[in-house]
């Protein structure tokens, strides 16, 4: 299984499409067996869900995300966890231990500050 976390400077980003990188963790059971940092290739409507699907991602974790991206991830059977925050290592460990749950809070406002989601 592959789990991607949208990140900025080692922290979960608050807006999926504007993250610096995706940290992609390859997981076997509840153990991380490999990880890689992939630069965000650019924010364009509908592009990033397809890009991550092509990377073999099964789960995406972010602070916030727009409804259109969530719909595309759902169509591709990729689990979406939104409302996450904090350091990447803590976030992946929380997910693997079953403690990290999605808040379901969708970003509806794309006229926001660069590090927020207009909540």
UniProtKB/TrEMBL annotation:
<dbReference type="InterPro" id="IPR036105">
    <property type="entry name" value="DiNase_FeMo-co_biosyn_sf"/>
</dbReference>
<dbReference type="Pfam" id="PF02579">
    <property type="entry name" value="Nitro_FeMo-Co"/>
</dbReference>
<protein>
    <submittedName>
        <fullName>Dinitrogenase iron-molybdenum cofactor biosynthesis protein</fullName>
    </submittedName>
</protein>
<dbReference type="InterPro" id="IPR033913">
    <property type="entry name" value="MTH1175_dom"/>
</dbReference>
<dbReference type="InterPro" id="IPR003731">
    <property type="entry name" value="Di-Nase_FeMo-co_biosynth"/>
</dbReference>
<feature type="domain" description="Dinitrogenase iron-molybdenum cofactor biosynthesis">
    <location>
        <begin position="9"/>
        <end position="96"/>
    </location>
</feature>
């Amino acid at each position: 299984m592959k789990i991607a976390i949208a990140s900025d400077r080692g922290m979960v980003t608050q807006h999926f499409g504007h993250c610096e990188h995706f940290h992609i963790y390859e997981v076997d059971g509840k153990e991380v067996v490999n990880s890689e940092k992939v630069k965000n290739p650019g924010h364009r409507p509908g592009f990033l869900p397809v890009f991550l699907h092509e990377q073999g991602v099964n789960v995406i974790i972010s602070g916030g995300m727009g409804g259109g991206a969530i719909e595309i991830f759902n169509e591709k059977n990729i689990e979406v966890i939104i409302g996450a925050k904090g350091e990447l290592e803590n976030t992946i460990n929380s997910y693997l231990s079953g403690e990290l749950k999605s808040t379901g809070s969708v970003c509806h406002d794309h006229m926001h500050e660069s590090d927020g989601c207009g909540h």
